[in-house]
Every structure is written in C-alpha cells, then in structure tokens.
Amino acid sequence: MIINIQALNFKANSPLTEYVQKKMDKINLLYDKVSSISVYFKLLNNNTKQNKFSEFILHIPGEDLVVKKQGQSFEECVDLSLDAIKIQLEKEKNKKRK
Questions:
Q1: How many CA atoms lie within 13 A of 77 on its CB side?
Q2: Is 63 helix (H, G, I), strand (E, B) or coil?
C-alpha cells in the first residue's frame, strides 16, 4: 500500500510522517484492498485552536473513500480520521459481502 503525504502552508516533519505511516499500516490489516492512501494536511489561517485540517483519500477498487477532519493537532486529526476510516471500511466490507 502506497501512502502519499502532502502538507499545504507548512513543511511536514519526520515524526508526523512516521506517525501517519504507523497509523495507516493498521488500515491494511482491516481491509487489504486499499491500493493507496493520499493524505493532505493544511494549516488554516484562522485564530482558533482547531486550525489543523486533514483529508484522507483511500483508493480502493471501484471508488474512493474520503475523510476530512479538523483539530488542535495533526496527530489528533489522524486519530479522528482513523476512527472514521474504520467505520467506512466496515460498511464497505459489509456491502461487498451482500
């Protein structure tokens, strides 16, 4: 599985990319048909504490699953996204079984 990480308005550091890689490796255990994941991080230009934004696009045969989350840190966005991805993949697996 290929993971592409892009950061907008800032430079993503190594610990953040390693954190994403570690968390997204769990996706392959849940659903082995994910061919690649595109991850976009954006630092929003507002004065709120929740100025970090992430978008995850999972490329699976037949469609793409998209999860967008906003939080106080990029790690929080990754964790929130992973929870939402697990739910979407479970729905996708159940849809394929029917």
A1: 23
A2: strand
Provide DSSP, 6-27: EEESS---HHHHHHHHHHHHHH
Nearest to 77 by CA among 10, 14, 2, 24: 24
pLDDT tens, position by position, 10-47: 888 899 999 999 998 888 888 888 899 999 999 888 77
Residue corresponding to tokens 């939080």? 71
What is the C-alpha separation between 2 and 89, in angstroms, rounded? 17
Q: Is the model's pTM score more than 0.85? A: yes
Instruction: State how far the alpha carbon of 34 is from the alpha carbons of 28, 60, 82, 88, 90, in Å.
Output: 7, 5, 14, 12, 13
pLDDT at residue number 84: 94
Q: What is the pLDDT of residue 39?
A: 95
